[in-house]
Every structure is written in C-alpha cells, then in structure tokens.
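Progress against Task 2.4 (sequence-to-structure conversion) is shown through the following example record, which the project officer requested during the mid-term review.
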Amino acid sequence: MVTRSLLCAALLALAGCVCQTPTYVRPTSTGDPWNTTSLIDADPASVSTADLTSHVQVVNQRYWAHSQVNGIIWPALRTDTALPDPDRWVTGGDSGIFTGTALAAFAFQYKAEPSTEGLQHAFDTLRGLYILTHSTGTPGVIQRNAFPADQPDKFGYPAEWASRIAAGFVHTGPAFDDPFGGPQIPPQTYYTRGTKDQLTGMVLGLAAAWTVFDPATVFPAHIPTATSMRDVVKQITQDIAVHLYAYDWYIRDEYGHNDTNADHVSGLLKAALLALVVKTGVAPAQEDYDKEFSNFMLTVPALIISDRFSNFQQYYAHNLRVSRAISIWLLEGPGSPKGQQVASYIGTNVWDFTKGHKNAWFAFAQGITTPSDAAAVAEGLYALKSLSLKPLRGWSSPYHGQAHKPDLGAVASGCTSLFALDPHLRKPVAYTTWQKEPWDVGDEPDWDKQGLLETSGLDFLLAYWMGKAYGLF
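Structure tokens generated for the chain above:
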C-alpha cells in the first residue's frame, strides 16, 4: 500500500493537464442493419421521463424473456444474425455478480412501485441467487453460474467450457430443496472458481432485499409458501458466512479449492458481509463488524491517492467500491454514522474520479447518499436517457475502432471526463455498460456487427429503479 501510494503521489506531482477532447471521425452510413451511425445525431435531452417509463417496460420484458434462466442472469446470444430473438446464452462467467445486482434492481423496483410483478421479479431472482450458492450440494459455495444440467446445448456446454472443465471447477450437483418449499430444484451444472467480485454482487442484492422486504411482505397468491424473502436472505447469508469462516475468509469451492488471487475477503467487502450477518441475526458479530469497518475507514485517505488510477486500468474497481458501500448504506440507513461514512467514501473515492463519466449507476449512488448533490442526479438522469437510445441488440458502436483512452498523465490530472462518450455511443456489452470504461467503443474484430449479442438491460434496470425508489426523478 505504501509503495503504491508513493508511486501515485509521484505521478500526480509530475503530471500536467495533457487532455484534449478526442476527435471522432463520423463513419459513412452504409444502410446495413448493423450500421448505427444515426445514433450520433440522437439527443438524450429529447428523451422525456415518460419515455423512460415506456423503455423500462420494454427492457423488463426482454430481460425476463431472454436474459435469465431460473432467475440467474444469462446474457443471450443469436446463432444466426437473421434471428430476431436470441436462441441460446453466452457462457456466463459473471452471472454470480450480476444476479446479485439484478436482485438489487428488482428490490428497488418493488420499493418504487409495489406490485405483484415487482415482487415476482425479486422472488425469482432471489431463488436464482439461492441456486448459485447451493447447487454444489455444499451450502454457501459461491458459483459464477449454474444452468439446468439437462439443457447443455443452450449454454455451449461442454465445447465452450473446456478450460473451466480442465481446471476442475465445473461439476454437476444433486437435486436440492427449493428455499420457498416448492418442488425440488433439479441438478445444475455449475462453475465455481468464485472471487470477491462475485461475492460483492451477491451481498448488494441480499442487502437490498433485506432492506426492502419485511416479514409481512405478502407473496403473489400463486406462490404457496410461508417462507418470507427475509428468511431466504438470512439462509443465504448464513451459508456463505459459515463457509467463509471455515476457510479463514478465503473463497473456496466444495472441495476447498480455488486458483485465483482475488479470493481473500477483507476490507469493505468483509465489513459489508458482516453487516448482513449482524442485521439478519445470523450471528452476534457486531464487534467484528465494527472493527473491520473502522479499520477500512482509516485507510480511506490513503486510498484516495490510488483509487483515481482505476480510470487508467481496472475501471470495474469503481463498481466494486460503490456496491460494497451501498450495501452498508442500505443496511445501516442514511442517517446512521456508518451510513454517513460510506456516503462520504463514495463521494471522495468514486464520484470525485468519475464525475462527468455519464455513469448513471455512480451518479445515482452519489445522489441517494448525498441528497444535496443535484448535479450528480442531473448527470445520472442524462446518462439514463442516453442509454435508453442504445439498442438492446449488440450492434457495434458507430465509433467502433476509434479508441481514445486517456493516458496516465490525463488520469493523474483528472481530465478523464473529456474522454467520456454518451452511453448510447459506447460498445455493446453483455451485462452492464456501467462496468466498462466510458470511452470504450470496441476495437475487437467485427463480430459484433452481426448483432448476435443481446445485452441484458441490467444497467438500465438498476439505475432506473434505484433512481425511482429514492425519488431522484
């Protein structure tokens, strides 16, 4: 930590503002189905709140029709560009993270607009998260994904899973009990090799569900269960915590194995999980939680020096910080001392470095934790309107191949907002735009011009429903 901080301080001292707004060449419109040149002329400011309401209904419908299996998020794929709808799924290496994130989105949906639909969405996604922590047969093992073992072809299995299988992290588990008392869940083929990233998304979803759903929440009439959402949140939390305790806070599979250096749970993530343990009543861990939280907060001033460099590499680290901090904020409440501390942390260690990136997730996280920041809310709303203009089908960015990434000097100087494109002009993504660099237009081969990918739409759902749930628009 000291070495990294000294290096970052030296870079800051040496860097001058070397930023210039990038110049993009407008491509020639070809008239082909994949051509998105017209997006350059689209105006996010012309999108109304009513338009956003209509769009979220479309995204919700597409998500549940094509981008989930048993409540687990699975970005969809076409095997032929002529197909109007996807007919299979990608290999889903990050379904664990984003199923948790989806649970947060649908909990926020219910908080914003209590309805049978919102409750059903959260119910199904919580069951999906249960599958991702129980289908190995060992409760609490974190899985990256899981799919019904009798449907391998739809998931490219086993051909596209060869390296995962060879490494020993893909297995098929036994049938197991449904957490809500329904029929047994049939055997799942699953991929472990869990990381802190997967756990971060899961904790976010569990924290949101615990916060939104109280024991009196009434389930839809066709779901005959006496088990509450909170009961299942508590069970998942308990099983994850017990498994982690058994391995001294290292993420391990059912055999005690892993092969990633992102497997030790500590710092803000450990504090967030301990907050869940305490708030759900799983164990009397208040002292451990307080200690972990306090120790992390003591490091925050030093981390400010280095966290800005996530804009140079590992942009996704900003997402991890926001997710972990928001989890604690949800569980503690905005007026609590810990809630205020994580709100300040989001401002100093994320928002100060991503302001102007037109990232609705970060902007709304700043907006709900620091209500006085009207500029953040306005930026988030603009970003959400922009994203609504982007096709869910994975056509190339109109600026495909024109990479303009800020260099180290620009990052050190704090000029990165000059490089941020409107979300509708960025490259297509499988899960969420907000995890990607805001200047990434794609420089891969032209496979995406076939429009084979279907984005999950989770980026829109998360930001929209969080904004609505907390009255930002």
